[in-house]
Here is the input.
Amino acid sequence: MSSTETVNQTTSSEALNSPFVQELVRQIRAQDSYGFYRNWSDELILKPYIVSKQAKRQISVEGDVEAATKARIMSFYRAIAAQIEQKTGSLSQVVIDLSHEGFGWVLVFSGRLLLVARTLRDAQRFGFDSLEKLADEGDKLTQKGIELAEKYTEVAKL
Here is the structure.
């Protein structure tokens, strides 16, 4: 095993153990009413979130957004909302408005406070280059949401 492979494995295991990624796995498992993912490893559950740039180019943006892709997007932002809720104690919700063409937006809010607002474009290609980038993006959005919730707690409680 080369040193690069060792570093990649260490980085992947660190990303897999990040609080955001663990919450994402919990959100996915929570939506599994039939127990389909019961025996799946966390890495296997997260595999659809990892899409290389080459693979993204292969995905057509011509058709409607698949239900599985919509579910992945919702789980990603629900994990952010859950993390914000855990850290601040303010109930957080997610709203997604997505056209059949893959354009739209995502809002994570608490009370009347908008914690995360993201524009979605080509939602059919939703994914991240690596597990580390997934964890970094989730952690970054979560942290920004927590900062806003702590700064404007009175608005979050309206």
